[in-house]
Amino acid sequence: MTTERTAPAPAGTELDRWPLVGLAGLLAFVAMLDLNIVTVAVPKIAEGLGVQPETAQWAGLGYQLPVVALLLPVGRWLDGAALRPALLGALTGFALCSAAAAAAPGAGWLIAARIAQGCFAAVLFVLMPVLAATAVRPELRARAMSVPATLGPLGAVTGPAVGGLLLDHLGWRAVFLVKLPLCLAALVLAHRHLVRGGRPRRPDRRSLADAALIGAAVGAVLLAFTLAPDAPPWLLLALAAGPFAALWLRGPGGRTVVAVLRDSGTAPVNAAVLAVASGFAAMHYLISLHLQRDEGVSATATGLTVLAFPAAMGLAGPLGGRLADRFGTRPTAAAGAAVTALGLLLLIPIGDHWSTGSIAWRLALAGLGMGLYGGPSQALVMTAAPPDRMATAGSTVQLARSLGFALGPALATAAWGLAGRGGTGVRTGLAVAAAAACLAVPLLAAGVRSSRSGLPRRRSGS
User: Fold this and answer.
1) Which of 34, 57, 208, 239 registers the highest number of CB atoms within 10 A of its CB?
2) Contact present, 218 and 44 (Cβ < 8 Å)
3) Cα atoms found within 13 Å of the Cα of residue 63, Cβ hemisphere only
4) CA angle, corner 291, sides to 288 and 295, nearest 5?
C-alpha cells in the first residue's frame, strides 16, 4: 500500500516555483516530440542520404534505445545530485546533437548524433518529474505533475503531424531543427529559476553495465513483437530478456530500484502507467492504420480525427490535477484510467463504415480520461518516494511510460498480423489496447478503500 508524504514544506520554500513546473512541461513536450517526429521522416531521410529505409529507421531507433536503456541507471546516478548543472548540461547536449543531426552529411553521422541525443534525453526524462515534484508544496503536487504528464503525450501525438508539415515544406532536416527554439526557451527558464551551485556526479562503470543489460532486455522484447506478425516463432525471442533482467536485478542498480518500489509501495502504480501507455500507443497506431488503409481516409483527415484525443487530454489535464489535490490522487487516477478504458472499449466494434466523427468522440472520451489520470498517477509515485531517491522514482515512472509507448505499437502490430490483418486484425488489436487500459484500473484503485493517504491535508480556512 502506497504511503504518501504530505508533510509541510521546509522553511524558505513557502512560495511555489511554477516556472519550474512549466520547465518540466516544456521538457516533456520536447522529449516526446522527438520520439515521434522522426518516424514520418524516415522515407525522406533514406532518399536524401541515399540509404535503405532500414538504415534510415535508425534515426528513430538510435534515439529511443538509449532513452529506454539509460533511464534507470541515470535515475540512480542523479539521486542527491545538483539539478542545475545536470539539467543545463543535458539540455545543451540535446540541442547540439539536434543541430548535428540536421547537418548530417551521411547516415553514420546522423545515427551517431541521434544516439548521443538519446543519452542526453534520458537525463531530461528523469529530471522532468523531479522538477515538477520539488517545485511546489506536497498538497499541490498532483496539479504540478499534471503539467508534464499532459504535455508529454501531447508532444508524442503532435509529432507526426508537425513532422508531416515540415517535410512537405522544408525537408527532412527541419524535423531536427524545429526543437531548437524550444530548447533555447528551456535553457532561459533553467538559468533564471534553478538554484545555483553543486556539481553532477560522474557515471560509474556499474551504471554503464546496467544500461547495457536493460537495453538488451528491452531490445529482445521489441524485436520479438516486431518480427512476430510474419513469423510467430519470433515471439520466443522475448524469453531472452529474462537472463538480462535477472543479471540487472542482482546488481546494485537493480537492488536500488527494487528497494524504492518496495519501500514506497508504488510497483502497482508503475505497472498501471505501463499498461495505460501501451493501450494508448497501440490505439493510436491502429486507428491511423484503419482510417488510411481500410477506409481510404486522407492523411490530413486522419490527423484531424486523431487530434480529438490530445485536444480532450489537454483540456482535462489541469482539471485532473485540481481534482487530485482536492479529493485525492489515487481515486482521481483510478477514475481517469477507467474513463480511458471505456473510450478504448467503445472503439473495439469499429466498423468498415464508421464516420470519422463516430471515431473522434470515442477518442475524445479516452483522451479525457488520460488527462484526468496522467498527473495524479505520477504524483502517486513521486510523493511516496524517499526524498533521497526521487530521481530513481522519477526514472521508474518514466521508464514505465516510455516502455508503454514503445511496446504499444509492437503489441498492436503483433495482434493485427496474427489475427489476419484487415478489419479483424484492427479490432483484435483494439481489444488488446482496451484490455491493457482496463488492467490499470484495479492497479490504481487498490488502496482507495483501505487508505485515506491520497487525500491532501486541508489548510486552515479551507
Assistant:
1) 34
2) no
3) 26
4) 160
